[in-house]
């Protein structure tokens, strides 16, 4: 099958949707399908062989964050040419409601279209204002996928129609084994107390809804109680700004890596004793959780609905009340002092994450492709189609 995949966000800035698109494309290629991805990217940006640039992205406030999207005459021209030259059996558009390449592709395409909805939000001014424009594009999407119940509810409430639920995938084997980063000893099975241990965070450090500020407040407490405790932070953002928010006496125990490679990201998961996801909301799934689960990292996450689902209501990872730094500090301390609990969470996580392996998820996506291709002369029934 010839498959065209549309990524709405710039390829060069890490994000859950970009990761999903990349891994899906590679999983489909590995099973013998011909795949091309179009994405916002600078023309000189390094891209994998299966991806092409639709032009430079611009920052746009979207879903409580700042997304780098591409929408304009140059992008429209490149999308039309890509669709024409690709002659795809099916077009797979991610976030078709976002003001980016997905809309352009829906308007330009005539064949079967599948749309995957990732975002979760209670209200969106952008979607409200552009709803009439969106409908003209979304009417052409004959197969709809939502990555979570939260994303599906957002679709139903804001745009209408229904979707089949297929979760985000994760390349489990890629994360399963790795050496810790230099200077980090990796996970052990002893209780730490004041002797040490390491907490980790991975995400956009300059995006408030990722919750880094909550973790930093918790570390102010834990760091004073546990003189050997360290904190490892990775992700896009201003490292100097992060360090400035930490008390001077604790700064030498906080390592801010900034934006790191995929290889170092995997090693980071294997370098910490507890991986913390302190997100405040706006998450429909939590790819960062499934990556950490694949690495066997004991997880402590805020108890937003999407995270609780992935962590099986606390069986595959501990949870704490959203935004509560004191509760985070207490829960992290308890995990550091309880090696058997950490070992249990690690084992449960490795088992639970198998449901999200790309070998399984890609098969489910292919079934949707096959359905819309077969039914391309009519409307596909609810649950798969609009």
3D structure, described in words:
This protein is an alpha/beta fold and 386 residues long. It has 14 helices and 15 strands. The strands form three sheets. Strands 3-2-1-6-7-8-9 form a seven-stranded parallel beta sheet, with helices on both faces. It has a six-stranded parallel beta sheet with strand order 12-11-10-13-14-15, sandwiched between helices. A two-stranded antiparallel ribbon has the order 4-5. α3 (101-108) packs parallel to α4. The longest helix is centred in the last third of the chain and has 17 residues, at 358-374. 50% of the residues are buried.
Strand order of the largest sheet: 3-2-1-6-7-8-9
Report the average pLDDT across residues: 88
Q: How many extended strands?
A: 15
Radius of gyration: 21 Å
**Which percent range describes the beta-strand content?**
15-25%
N- to C-terminal distance: 22 Å
Regions with little confidence, pLDDT below 50 for 5+ residues: 378-386
- Characterize the biggest β-sheet: 7 strands, parallel
The gross shape turns out to be elongated
Helical segment tally? 14
Helix content: 25-40%
Tell me the structural class: alpha/beta
**Element order: H for helix, E for strand:** EHEEEEHEHEHEHEHEHEHEHEHEHEHHH
List the helices and strands and how they pair.
Blueprint: E1 2-6, H1 16-30, E2 34-39, E3 51-53, E4 58-62, E5 65-69, H2 73-86, E6 90-94, H3 101-108, E7 113-117, H4 125-138, E8 143-146, H5 149-158, E9 164-165, H6 172-176, E10 198-202, H7 212-225, E11 230-234, H8 239-244, E12 254-256, H9 262-269, E13 274-277, H10 287-294, E14 299-302, H11 305-310, E15 318-320, H12 325-336, H13 339-352, H14 358-374
Parallel strand pairs: 1-2, 1-6, 2-3, 6-7, 7-8, 8-9, 10-11, 10-13, 11-12, 13-14, 14-15
Antiparallel strand pairs: 4-5
Helix pairs in contact: 1-14, 2-3, 3-4, 7-12
């Amino acid at each position: 099958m010839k498959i065209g995949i549309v990524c709405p966000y710039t390829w060069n800035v890490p994000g859950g949707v970009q990761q999903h698109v990349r891994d899906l494309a590679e999983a489909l290629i590995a099973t013998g399908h011909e795949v091309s991805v179009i994405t916002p990217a600078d023309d000189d940006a390094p891209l994998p062989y299966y991806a092409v640039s639709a032009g430079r992205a611009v920052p746009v406030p979207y879903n409580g964050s700042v997304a780098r999207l591409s929408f304009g005459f140059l992008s429209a021209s490149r999308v039309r040419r890509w669709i024409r030259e690709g002659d795809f059996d099916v077009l797979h558009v991610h976030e078709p409601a976002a003001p980016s390449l997905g809309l352009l592709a829906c308007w330009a395409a005539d064949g079967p279209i599948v749309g995957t909805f990732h975002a979760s939000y209670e209200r969106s001014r952008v979607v409200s204002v552009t709803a009439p424009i969106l409908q003209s594009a979304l009417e052409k999407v004959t197969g709809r996928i939502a990555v979570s119940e939260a994303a599906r509810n957002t679709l139903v409430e804001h745009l209408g129609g229904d979707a089949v639920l297929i979760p985000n995938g994760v390349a489990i084997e890629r994360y399963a084994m790795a050496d810790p980063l230099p200077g980090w000893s990796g996970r052990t099975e002893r209780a730490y107390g004041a002797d040490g241990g390491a907490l980790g965070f991975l995400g956009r450090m300059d995006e408030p809804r990722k919750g880094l500020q909550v973790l930093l407040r918790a570390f102010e407490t834990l760091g004073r109680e546990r003189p050997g405790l360290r904190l490892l932070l990775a992700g896009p953002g201003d490292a100097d700004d992060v360090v400035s928010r930490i008390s001077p006496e604790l700064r030498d125990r906080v390592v801010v890596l900034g934006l790191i490679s995929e290889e170092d990201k995997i090693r980071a998961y294997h370098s910490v004793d507890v991986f913390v996801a302190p997100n405040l909301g706006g998450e429909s799934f939590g790819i960062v959780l499934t990556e950490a689960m694949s690495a066997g990292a004991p997880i402590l996450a805020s108890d937003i609905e999407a995270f609780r689902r992935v962590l099986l209501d606390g069986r595959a990872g501990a949870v704490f009340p959203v935004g509560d730094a004191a509760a985070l500090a207490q829960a992290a301390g308890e995990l550091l002092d309880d090696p058997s609990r950490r070992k249990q969470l690690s084992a449960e996580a490795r088992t639970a994450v198998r449901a999200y392996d790309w070998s399984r998820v890609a098969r489910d996506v292919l079934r949707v492709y096959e359905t819309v291709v077969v039914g391309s002369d009519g409307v596909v029934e609810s649950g798969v189609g609009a």
